[in-house]
């Protein structure tokens, strides 16, 4: 973790137009690796504090021009934060429109596109984790209808795989 400058990482996360998307994606992948591989959660949270990084991640979801591959890695990073600390939930809920943006990705999923499906499945994981602390926020954002519609639309075979993935992850 000493190799990563958190200020640069945060700056790259906040990029988002044209060629800058590549830098944003690199920053997202780096953040995911830091969160996933950290052997000390407290040190990781000191380096990449949820109070600054989670709002930046949520803002990526609020960017309607963000491509699915960027959003999928963003959702993965949010999931890693939530896996480590349920307290991160309030930081996500505190970003106006973030939960609704996550829900909306389930509405526009392209089932024949692998990246779009992966994004939708990651959004379901994020919403599931948020529901453990702030189910009302997900409900108010229309999350229940979005998740149920997504589950209905993906078909029985994919439903089983999605459910199996959640049970294995939990």
From TrEMBL:
Organism: Takifugu rubripes (Japanese pufferfish)
Pathway entry: Protein modification; protein ubiquitination
GO biological process, one term: protein K63-linked ubiquitination
This protein's UniProt keywords: Transferase, Ubl conjugation pathway
EC number, as in UniProt: 2.3.2.26
Gene3D superfamilies given in the database record: Leucine-rich Repeat Variant (1.25.10.10)
Keyword Transferase belongs to the record: yes
Name of the protein: E3 ubiquitin-protein ligase
Domain E3 ubiquitin-protein ligase TRIP12-like TPR repeats: 17-132
Annotated catalysed reactions: S-ubiquitinyl-[E2 ubiquitin-conjugating enzyme]-L-cysteine + [acceptor protein]-L-lysine = [E2 ubiquitin-conjugating enzyme]-L-cysteine + N(6)-ubiquitinyl-[acceptor protein]-L-lysine
